[in-house]
Design goal:
- Pfam families: Plasmid_RAQPRD.
- This protein has 122 residues and is mostly helical.
- The protein has one domain.
- 52% of the residues lie in helices and 5% in strands.
- It has a two-stranded antiparallel sheet with strand order 1-2.
- α1 packs antiparallel against α2 and α2 runs antiparallel to α3.
- It is elongated, with a radius of gyration of 16 Å.
- It starts with 6 loop residues before the first helix and ends in a 12-residue tail after the last strand.
Length: 122
C-alpha cells in the first residue's frame, strides 16, 4: 500500500526529524556555553516548526471519504514534549525527577475512528 503524503506534510515531517536529529547528539553531561546556545537555537527552530505545522493544519483540506489523514494535534503534542525536555534541561528543577513519556510517532490517523489520545497499550 502506497501512502500519499502531501508536500506540506512531507515538509513538516522532514523539519521535525531534522530538529530531533540535531538535538539527539547533545548529551546531558556537563553543559558548555556552546551546548546551551545550540539548545536555545533548537528551541527557536521548534517555534518555527510549530508555527509551520499549525499553518499546515489550518490549510489542510478536509476531504470526505479519505480514509487516513495527517494527525496534526498529535505532532504538536510531541513537539511540545520535545520543547519541555529541552526547557527542563536548560532550567533544571532538582525537586523531582521528570516524567518520561514516549513520543507518539505515528501521525497517520484513520478517518473512520479519529484517535488523538496519547494513551498507549503496553
Amino acid at each position: 500500500m502506497v501512502l500519499s503524503i502531501r508536500p506540506a506534510q512531507r515538509g513538516a515531517y522532514l523539519l521535525f526529524m531534522a530538529t530531533v536529529m540535531a538535538v539527539a547528539p547533545m548529551t546531558a553531561s556537563a553543559e558548555t556555553p556552546m551546548q546551551r546556545q545550540e539548545l536555545v537555537a533548537a528551541m527557536r527552530q521548534l517555534d518555527a516548526l510549530e508555527r509551520f505545522v499549525a499553518q499546515s493544519a489550518a490549510n489542510a483540506p478536509i476531504t470526505s471519504g479519505e480514509r487516513y489523514h495527517f494527525d496534526y494535534p498529535r505532532l504538536l503534542a510531541d513537539l511540545a514534549q520535545v520543547r519541555a525536555g529541552i526547557q527542563t534541561h536548560l532550567t533544571p528543577s532538582r525537586a523531582q525527577p521528570r516524567d518520561p513519556v514516549d513520543l507518539a510517532g505515528d501521525y497517520r490517523a484513520n478517518a473512520a475512528a479519529p484517535d488523538t489520545s496519547r494513551e498507549r497499550q503496553p
